[in-house]
């Protein structure tokens, strides 16, 4: 059966395979390759024409250079942010399904509903952030700006839709990301041929729009509501290996596609004024360029803001650690989508929330369903924020203690003055005990120093504190269901199936907190499971370990332990121990910085009494204090006491620091002393110098105390490690004479502003040693080893000398090194002998390598010299810069690196923003993307922007000057009033009333300053949908300015009131002599075309003037002057705040309406001026007089030109005149019949004639033929006759010969 | 409005130039309060007013508000415009005071700047035009600001107190700056200088040269000091003389030093020999400080590094001057940029004092004023 069905093999006759085969065949025959052809037939490839050859060469070179891109410095970070994949398409095309399938393909997880971006790990080196783009044009515009890859879904059964083209056009304007088309609904084609045809048609249309050969993917159909696995897998492969070219705007601006948003407003403010401006924190991967703290950002759809704080967090969706496997581990396939309610670990600035894995889910599933639901419902139904709940919540610290209200906590806080930390400590101790009970149970008791104990305890305390807080929240929420929830919520994470569909409400963060906290409650409060106890024990142990480590090292270590990164590490450890279910305390985690600061502050205040506080408040590094004050509402008393402990600790630390410092100083002092001794020896016995030394040492000491670090001197705070600082201490000599910056700047606030750096204590340049101190700065001095010409020469010699040596034997050279070895290691006698030859060999080898390298370098230099083009050089330069950029800050930790570079793209950041309109929070809808676009310097300012603009060829109307229009420019979308102009030949910008149809024109508007060369697009309105193409115009920014140059034409008219020869007095053009004075010398003209000039104003009628013309005017003439009047542009800039609209109405933003729209809506008809109405033009008949030529003149004319006296033709006489004949109907009929008949007749005759002619022709041909035949016959007959005659003749001759012979015989 | 204009606020008139220049470049408005508020003669001085007028001339659309007493200044920057300009500088400060700021702004104009500055060319307070010409211009060239219209010409010399000098400064416009890596100062290969004298005996210049050479000859033989004696209209309104020295290294670093005589009617007369000697010693001090940029141009180089592309720039400096330190702070507040500051002890003896290696990543500044066609 099967064999029958199988197709017979067809040999290929075309295509690559056939070609290959043919080639092989030809090769076998011995007439193969092209090169062979060149060899075989050299003449065919010889130079025919030098000119032509030059031309072809030119052309190839041109083509080659065309392919070059301008080399750019590669600034992509080593660990890039996830690739932003935007899935676009018209509604019902299968976007969400595709995303779900892709996520499932990569992570084996099934998401039910997708809100906001979803980040997944797609490979060893790549992560993807997939986001769906709705059909709202606002969303389309925003996402086109941040997309790295666009998956453009097209319903093949329908064909292209407007949205697709609109999106393509948006992309073109804002830098073209990679675009991949995906055809869906291909299963709706029944006919295979139809399908093929459609595919091809769509493909070619797609190619014209993107680029020929752009990838178009076909998804054949749905199986059980999903796309086929294999196809999705292939698509995934395509995505995860795709390469991207950097886009200008994206690489020059930092931006964040927000993952998560949290409201941080003080609940009290919200309570007092629900409409108050909010403070929010936004989380997401930083992309594009580096982001600096305090920089300006724009949120499309909301407005401009200043970043109030940025911090980086551990990566929630980190790439797997380097491993050699080909594919990913199952546990590395992470997914992170907080807005959709998924994601393993959620990091906050000072807390880590970890998802409870499957293993921790409660076993009974019956219980789970209801409470889960209730939780959701309760979450949905609550309208108060966490903070509000916080205010009225109660905390029970221990299982059976009296619940504490927030009032209590606050009271405590307020009652207790700051200094009374002991009381805090006490309470802390009480709590600590409770914690230790567990540990003791586990037998993990410790005998550590008090300090360490405290630290670990602190941590525990903190965690409990946090728990307590959260507990409070949930308590208030569902006082009755606590226990149920605990078990239920754990389930929730693990359960990502159907139930989750209606699960998390959009505003995710708060409930994240809730979830986590309640999850922990289950652990910390219940204490039932041994695991947890162990966990605590483990943690304790780890802490101990660390603390003991740090003990042995410098004390700064201890501080650094608190750093978030360290936290992350701890975290990992715990994960290894399968103790996923832990949450770190909220408040135990001050930043390194603050720790350092406090220590230094204290030490400084002791040393000098000068306060650094001001400086530190200004400083970049956020102080812990500031944070604390921010969170006062949330904080509770125990936290305070934690602070206290810290403080105490830091004191200890600082003490130690101090000790170190002193030691260092002593050391340095000694060194310094030695140096000076040396100098004293050389200089001879200068008594005063010794004293100087001492003094200098003292001064030095003082300085050491006051200015430990140059960086600190400049910037005030220090974020680097203490070790480094110490180094700096050592390095710093008594060189920097600058005293405390604060004091100085205060003292010198009004001092002389001069950049010179006067020498305060000039050195005595007559002394030899002083002179010697700069001896080597001159070319005459000693050079460094690697630059000294003599030494280099010598080296070379050595190298070449070696060469000879090698041939004779290198034993001689090897010896000294071996000796050195001997001296170094005397103990190892056995090894030595084995080592000696080895060392020799090595040295030899090294030398050989050295020589080889040198030769290679020389060769390279020689070889490359001819080949290196300008392009190559440029490329290499860029490459170098890239390497330098990467290498410069590589070895620094992120904390300090962030200060120099800003936050690198690829980091997961948390950005705090203040003064955000409340609508942003209240109307938050996760389906709409939140983007934070960083602005460059002065990009936040407004001014006049000049554009080159062209109306889109698919947009049906033309654009009118002064009609408000919405621009998408840079990150922004805004409405403004543009003016269209065109540049005249002399560079004048002349105003246009309408944009030209098929031409570029200029446009100017008042709006945000955006760098030149940025593309933009314009749309009339962003609300609703129209069947037409929405993009009205596109173009590019040309110029930015604070003033404009657009002018419009203004004609001033006047009338002559007195006319002399060529001079006239004109009135009515101006109103005053002053105006006239301004226009003296201006060119004027009459309507009839007589040109003139304004001369001088007259006194009598105001504004009249004297003017001269090239001819005499008439009183009826109108005189006019052409002037140019500068146009003013209305300063109207209205950002499109679509994200502030209520959910569901976000695509209904309307701004200022055009006059046309308003008139249409209000039904007001335009009143036209009488003069503008079109009326029939009635012209009087112009009467011209007869041309009269004088008789004398007539006489003189030649005859040709003389007027001739033609006699008028007489009227036709009566007999010539014939009356018209009018036929009767009957007669008409007759004549019609007759004409018809005659026509028929004539036709017949014609036909007959034709026939006759044909016959004649035929006859003639026939006759001709016959005649020919006859002729032939005759000819043949003649031939026959002659032949016979000839034969006869022959015979006769023969016979006559015979006869004679006979006769002879 | 586009945004809440986040203006910066300062107290006191010190570093006024820095603040205005950085404000102009960053687009952030600045408010300066309490300018000499407690002095007998409060408010802005004439040279500061002249400076503000100059800033107003080179920009378009900037808003300057000064209160009645002149103790408070609000400056909202416009866009740098440039073009052909003239400015009469106040004779109480030298042209260098104005020129230093113009050097910072000139590459970022809309039209190439060509400005004639009139006033005092050399005085004892500010870096003179000669030194700026010899040190700052080569520095700008390192950043890619170069070409035809890049010059600083001294047409007339004017000494304090009356001035009367004239300087033409022209600078082309650039869209972006190149990053620099100048960590190797090289070795000094030659020393050049100008000994000028106006409205005094031309012999004085020669006397200065001799005395200066007497010291410098001990280090290097390649010394040439030009004598520049101006006469007639090009000699300004007051008598005076002075010397400016520049040491050039093998890697194109220029270190300058200068000294001028006391202005007429102020202080005691200075002997030209003494002036020459002292100036030579100042140069040696400058060499001792070392670095790839001399102490007066530190802030300029740091600014240009800041305004580069988003690439790493490095420069080796001598000890930071107080002016530079304040400048660094200002850079941080205007551009949110911090420099990595590393002190480099001189590895080998006899190479002068300790150096500071400054590293930063440029902010990706691009000239927003320049028109594209």
UniProtKB/TrEMBL annotation, chain B:
Keyword match Nucleus: yes
Pfam family, one: RTC_insert
Keyword Nucleus: yes
Domain RNA 3'-terminal phosphate cyclase insert per the UniProt entry, residue ranges: 183-287
Positions of the RNA 3'-terminal phosphate cyclase domain: 11-341
Listed InterPro entries: RNA3'-term_phos_cycl_insert, RNA3'_phos_cyclase_dom, RNA3'_phos_cyclase_dom_sf, RNA3'_term_phos_cyc, RNA3'_term_phos_cyc_type_2, RNA3'_term_phos_cycl-like_CS, RNA3'P_cycl/enolpyr_Trfase_a/b, RPTC_insert
PROSITE patterns in alphabetical order: RTC
GO biological process: endonucleolytic cleavage of tricistronic rRNA transcript (SSU-rRNA, 5.8S rRNA, LSU-rRNA); ribosomal small subunit biogenesis
GO MF annotation list: RNA endonuclease activity
Protein name: RNA 3'-terminal phosphate cyclase-like protein
Organism of this sequence: Gopherus agassizii
């Amino acid at each position: 059966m099967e064999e029958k069905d199988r197709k017979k093999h067809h040999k290929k006759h075309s295509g690559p395979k056939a070609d290959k085969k043919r080639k092989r065949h030809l090769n076998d025959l011995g007439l193969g390759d092209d090169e062979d052809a060149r060899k075989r037939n050299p003449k065919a490839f010889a130079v025919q024409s030098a000119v032509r050859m030059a031309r072809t060469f030119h052309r190839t070179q041109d083509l080659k250079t065309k392919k070059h891109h301008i080399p750019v410095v590669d600034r992509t970070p080593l660990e890039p942010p996830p690739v932003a994949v935007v899935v676009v398409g018209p509604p019902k095309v299968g976007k969400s399904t595709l995303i779900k399938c892709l996520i499932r393909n990569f992570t084996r997880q099934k998401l039910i509903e997708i809100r906001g971006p979803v980040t997944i790990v797609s490979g060893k080196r790549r992560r993807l952030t997939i986001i769906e783009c709705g059909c709202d044009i606002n969303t389309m515009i925003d996402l086109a700006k941040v997309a790295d890859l666009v998956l453009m879904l097209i319903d093949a059964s329908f064909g292209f839709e407007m949205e697709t083209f609109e999106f393509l056009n948006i992309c073109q304007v804002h830098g073209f990301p990679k675009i991949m088309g995906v055809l869906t609904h291909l299963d709706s084609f029944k006919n295979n041929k139809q399908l093929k045809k459609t595919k091809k048609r769509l493909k070619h249309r797609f190619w014209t729009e993107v680029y020929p050969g752009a990838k178009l993917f076909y998804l054949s159909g749905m199986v059980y509501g999903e796309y086929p696995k294999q196809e999705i897998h292939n698509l995934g492969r395509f995505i995860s290996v795709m390469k991207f070219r950097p886009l200008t705007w994206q690489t020059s601006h930092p931006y964040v596609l927000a993952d998560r948003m949290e409201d941080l407003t003080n609940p009290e403010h919200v309570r007092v004024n629900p409409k108050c401006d909010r403070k929010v924190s936004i989380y997401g991967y930083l992309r594009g360029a580096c982001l600096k703290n305090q920089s300006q950002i724009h949120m499309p759809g909301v407005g401009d803001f200043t970043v109030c704080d940025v911090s980086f967090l551990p990566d929630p969706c980190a790439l797997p650690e380097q491993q050699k496997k080909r594919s990913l581990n199952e546990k590395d396939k992470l997914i992170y989508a907080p807005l959709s309610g998924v994601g393993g670990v959620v990091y906050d600035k000072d807390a880590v929330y970890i998802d409870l894995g499957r293993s921790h889910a409660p076993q009974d599933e019956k219980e789970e369903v209801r409470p889960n639901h209730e939780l959701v419902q309760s979450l949905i139904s609550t309208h108060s924020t966490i903070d509000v709940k916080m205010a009225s919540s109660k905390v029970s610290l221990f299982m059976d203690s009296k619940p504490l209200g927030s009032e209590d906590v606050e009271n405590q806080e307020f009652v207790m003055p700051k200094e009374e930390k002991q009381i805090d400590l006490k309470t802390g101790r009480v709590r600590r005990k409770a914690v230790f009970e567990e540990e003791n149970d586990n037998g993990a008791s410790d005998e550590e120093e008090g300090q360490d104990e405290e630290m670990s305890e602190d941590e525990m305390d903190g965690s409990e504190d946090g728990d307590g807080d959260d507990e409070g929240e949930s308590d208030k929420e569902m006082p009755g269901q606590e226990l149920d929830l605990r078990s239920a919520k754990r389930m929730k994470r693990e359960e990502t199936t159907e139930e989750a569909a209606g699960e998390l409400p959009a505003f995710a963060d708060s409930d994240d907190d809730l979830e986590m906290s309640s999850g922990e409650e289950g652990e910390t409060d219940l204490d039932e499971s041994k695991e947890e106890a162990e966990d605590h024990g483990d943690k304790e142990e780890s802490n101990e370990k660390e603390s003991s480590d740090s003990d042995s090292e410098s004390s700064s270590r201890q501080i650094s332990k608190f750093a978030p990164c360290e936290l992350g590490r701890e975290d990992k450890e715990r994960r290894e121990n399968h103790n996923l279910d832990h949450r770190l305390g909220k408040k135990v985690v001050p930043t390194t910085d603050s720790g350092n600061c406090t220590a230094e502050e204290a030490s400084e205040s002791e040393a000098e009494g000068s306060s650094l506080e001001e400086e530190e408040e200004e400083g970049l590094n956020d102080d812990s204090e500031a944070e604390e004050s921010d969170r006062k509402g949330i904080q509770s008393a125990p936290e305070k006491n934690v602070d206290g402990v810290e403080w105490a600790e830091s004191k200890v630390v600082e003490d130690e620091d101090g000790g170190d410092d002193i030691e260092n100083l002593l050391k340095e002092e000694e060194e310094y002393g030695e140096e000076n001794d040396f100098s004293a020896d050389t200089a001879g016995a200068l008594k005063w110098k010794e004293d100087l030394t001492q003094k200098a040492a003292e001064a030095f000491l003082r300085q050491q105390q006051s200015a430990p670090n140059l960086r600190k001197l400049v910037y005030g705070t220090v974020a680097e490690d203490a070790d480094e600082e110490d180094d700096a201490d050592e390095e710093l000599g008594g060189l920097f004479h600058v005293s405390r910056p604060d004091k100085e700047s205060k003292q010198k606030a009004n001092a002389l502003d001069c950049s010179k750096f006067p020498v305060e204590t000039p050195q005595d340049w007559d002394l030899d040693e002083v002179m010697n101190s700069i001896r080597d700065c001159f070319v005459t001095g000693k050079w460094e080893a690697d630059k000294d010409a003599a030494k280099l020469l010598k080296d070379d010699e050595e190298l070449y000398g070696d060469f000879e040596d090698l041939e004779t034997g290198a034993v001689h050279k090897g010896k000294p090194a071996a000796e050195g070895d001997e001296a170094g290691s005397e103990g190892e006698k056995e090894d030595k002998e084995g080592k000696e030859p080895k060392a020799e060999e090595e040295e030899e080898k090294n030398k050989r390598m050295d020589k080889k390298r040198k030769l290679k370098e020389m060769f390279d230099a020689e070889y490359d010299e001819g080949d290196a083009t300008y392009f190559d050089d440029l490329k290499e330069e860029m490459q170098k810069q890239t390497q330098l950029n990467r290498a410069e800050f590589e070895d620094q930790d992120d904390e300090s690196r962030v200060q120099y570079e800003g936050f690198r793209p690829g980091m997961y950041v948390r950005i705090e923003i203040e003064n955000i309109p409340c609508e942003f929070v209240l109307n938050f809808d996760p389906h709409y993307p939140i983007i934070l676009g960083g602005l460059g310097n002065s990009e936040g300012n407004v001014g006049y922007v000049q554009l080159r603009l062209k109306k889109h060829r698919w947009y049906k109307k033309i654009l009118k000057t002064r009609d408000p229009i919405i621009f998408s420019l840079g990150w922004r979308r805004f409405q403004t009033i543009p003016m269209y102009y065109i540049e005249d030949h002399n560079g004048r910008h002349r105003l246009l009333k309408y944009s030209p149809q098929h031409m570029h024109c200029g446009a100017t508007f008042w709006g945000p300053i955006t760098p030149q060369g940025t593309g933009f697009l314009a749309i009339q309105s962003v609300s609703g949908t129209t069947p037409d193409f929405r993009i009205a115009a596109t173009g590019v920014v040309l110029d930015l300015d604070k003033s404009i140059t657009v002018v419009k034409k203004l004609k001033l008219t006047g009338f002559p009131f007195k006319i002399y020869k060529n001079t006239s007095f004109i009135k009515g053009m101006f109103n005053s002599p002053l105006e006239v004075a301004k226009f003296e010398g201006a060119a004027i003209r009459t309507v009839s075309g007589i040109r003139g000039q304004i001369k001088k104003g007259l006194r009598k009628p105001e504004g009249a003037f004297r003017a001269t013309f090239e001819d005499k005017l008439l009183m009826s003439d109108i005189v006019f002057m052409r002037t140019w009047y500068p146009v003013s542009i209305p300063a109207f800039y209205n950002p499109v705040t679509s994200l502030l609209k209520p959910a569901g109405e976000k695509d209904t933003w309307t701004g200022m309406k055009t006059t046309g729209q308003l008139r249409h809506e209000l039904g007001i008809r335009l009143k036209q001026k009488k003069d503008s109405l079109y009326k029939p033009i009635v012209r009087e008949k112009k009467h011209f007089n007869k041309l009269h030529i004088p008789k004398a003149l007539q006489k003189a004319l030649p005859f040709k030109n003389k007027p001739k006296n033609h006699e008028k033709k007489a009227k036709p006489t009566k007999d010539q005149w014939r009356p018209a004949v009018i036929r009767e109907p009957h007669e008409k009929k007759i004549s019609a019949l007759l004409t018809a008949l005659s026509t028929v007749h004539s036709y017949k005759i014609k036909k007959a004639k034709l026939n006759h002619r044909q016959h004649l022709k035929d006859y003639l041909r026939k006759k001709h033929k016959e005649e020919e035949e006859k002729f032939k016959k005759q000819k043949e007959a003649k031939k026959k006759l002659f032949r016979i005659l000839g034969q006869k003749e022959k015979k006769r001759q023969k016979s006559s010969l015979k006869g004679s012979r006979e006769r002879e015989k | 409005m586009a945004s809440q204009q986040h203006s910066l606020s300062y107290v006191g008139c010190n570093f006024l130039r820095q603040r205005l220049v950085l404000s102009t470049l960053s687009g952030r408005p600045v408010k300066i309060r309490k300018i000499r508020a407690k002095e007998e003669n409060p408010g802005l001085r004439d040279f500061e007013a002249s400076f503000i007028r100059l800033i107003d001339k080179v920009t378009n659309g900037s808003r300057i508000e000064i209160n009645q007493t002149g103790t408070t200044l609000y400056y909202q920057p416009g866009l740098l415009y440039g073009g052909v300009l003239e400015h009469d500088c106040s004779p109480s400060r030298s042209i260098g005071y104005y020129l230093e700021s113009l050097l910072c702004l000139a590459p970022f104009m809309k039209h190439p700047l060509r400005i004639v500055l009139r006033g005092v060319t050399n005085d004892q307070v500010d870096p003179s035009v000669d030194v700026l010409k010899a040190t700052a211009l080569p520095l700008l060239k390192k950043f890619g600001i170069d070409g035809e219209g890049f010059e600083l010409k001294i047409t007339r010399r004017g000494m304090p107190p009356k001035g009367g000098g004239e300087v033409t400064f022209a600078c082309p416009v650039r869209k972006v700056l190149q990053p620099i890596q100048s960590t190797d100062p090289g070795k000094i290969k030659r020393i050049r200088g100008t000994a000028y004298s106006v409205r005094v005996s031309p012999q004085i210049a020669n006397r200065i040269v001799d005395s200066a050479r007497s010291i410098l000859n001990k280090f290097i033989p390649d010394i040439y000091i030009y004598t520049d004696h101006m006469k007639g209209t090009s000699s300004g309104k007051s008598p005076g003389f002075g010397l400016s020295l520049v040491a050039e290294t093998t890697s194109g670093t220029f270190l300058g030093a200068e000294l001028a005589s006391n202005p007429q009617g102020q202080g005691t007369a200075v002997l030209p020999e003494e002036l020459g000697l002292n100036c030579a010693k100042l140069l040696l001090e400058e060499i001792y400080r070392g670095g790839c940029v001399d102490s007066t141009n530190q802030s300029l180089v740091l600014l240009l590094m800041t305004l580069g592309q988003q690439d790493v720039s490095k420069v080796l400096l001598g000890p930071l001057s107080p002016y530079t330190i304040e400048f660094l702070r200002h850079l941080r507040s205007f551009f949110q940029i911090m420099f990595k500051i590393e002190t480099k002890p001189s590895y080998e003896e006899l190479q002068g004092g300790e150096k500071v290696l400054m590293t930063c990543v440029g902010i990706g500044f691009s000239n927003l004023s320049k028109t594209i066609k």
